[in-house]
Structure formats: structure tokens, C-alpha cells
Write a structure and sequence with these properties.
145 residues, alpha+beta, three-stranded antiparallel sheet, two-stranded antiparallel sheet, 47% helix, globular
């Protein structure tokens, strides 16, 4: 699926400029698999492109009603899933004048992957069993891909 020998350049366009950021293929693959294994919908990430979204908006029935989650999640489940997406480079935690908040936004890598899925049908496909096992080993056992 991804070449492990070469870095892949991802172009991220911002309103005032265009930046080229290069990520190793393994980084992109790990983030892509983590995204497909996450309990979140593409609507959430599309919203995160423009503004931050807080944990309470993702938890419980509100997350499902908003089209952000596939099923109701506890706040702890939301924190756990978003923390993994932070570790793989998809998300970043918002910061205000008093420090970290409970809100999240996309990183440039996250933006590129979301744009990929928007262009390929507008949904994030579910991960297959081998990808779920790879994500599980990377997430819980900290084994490299």
C-alpha cells in the first residue's frame, strides 16, 4: 500500500501560503490505519479542519447525533482514542492562555489524510482485521509496524 523506502511529500494549503511537509511512508500508513480504526466519523475531522472540537461534544449520544462518532462513547473512551490520534500525528490538543484544553484540531498530516478520504467517496472505510491487529500492536504494545 505504501512504499517503505521513500518519504512521501504531502502538500498542505493554508489560506495565506502553501507549505510542503514530508512524512515517512510508515508514518502516513500508521496514521491512516489509526484513523480507520478510530470510532470517529469523517464529519468530525472535517469540522476540526476549521475549528477545535471538545471532548464533551464527542461523548455520549451527542457525538452520535452530531455525526462525529459511530456509537456512543464515554469521555474516557474519547480521551483514549484522541490521545492515540495525537501520538500518530493526526490531531493536536488546543492550547489557550491557561494551558492545554479538552479540545482538538487536525495537524497537517491529519488534514492531508482527511482530504484523501473526502476525495475518495466522503467516508472513512473500516479497517480490515490485519490493519486492526497492526493498530492494536502499535497502540498497546508499542511495536513498530
Amino acid at each position: 500500500m505504501y512504499s517503505s523506502l521513500f518519504n512521501v511529500a504531502i502538500v498542505v494549503a493554508y489560506p495565506s501560503s502553501s507549505k510542503v511537509i514530508s512524512y515517512p511512508a510508515k508514518t502516513i500508513e500508521r496514521a491512516d490505519i489509526a484513523l480507520r480504526c478510530a470510532p470517529f466519523e469523517l464529519n468530525l475531522f472535517a469540522k476540526m479542519r476549521w475549528e477545535s472540537v471538545s471532548v464533551p461534544k464527542l461523548a455520549g449520544d451527542l457525538g452520535v447525533k452530531s455525526g462525529y462518532t459511530r456509537y456512543p462513547l464515554s469521555e474516557l473512551s474519547v480521551e483514549t482514542a484522541t490521545n492515540w490520534l495525537i501520538q500518530v500525528g493526526m490531531l493536536r490538543r488546543e492550547v489557550d492562555g491557561q494551558g492545554l484544553t479538552d479540545s482538538f484540531r487536525l495537524t497537517p498530516l491529519g488534514l492531508a489524510l482527511i482530504e484523501k478520504w473526502e476525495a475518495n467517496g466522503g467516508t472513512i472505510p473500516s479497517a480490515n482485521l490485519p490493519d486492526r491487529l497492526r493498530n492494536l500492536s502499535a497502540r498497546w504494545l508499542r511495536l513498530p509496524f
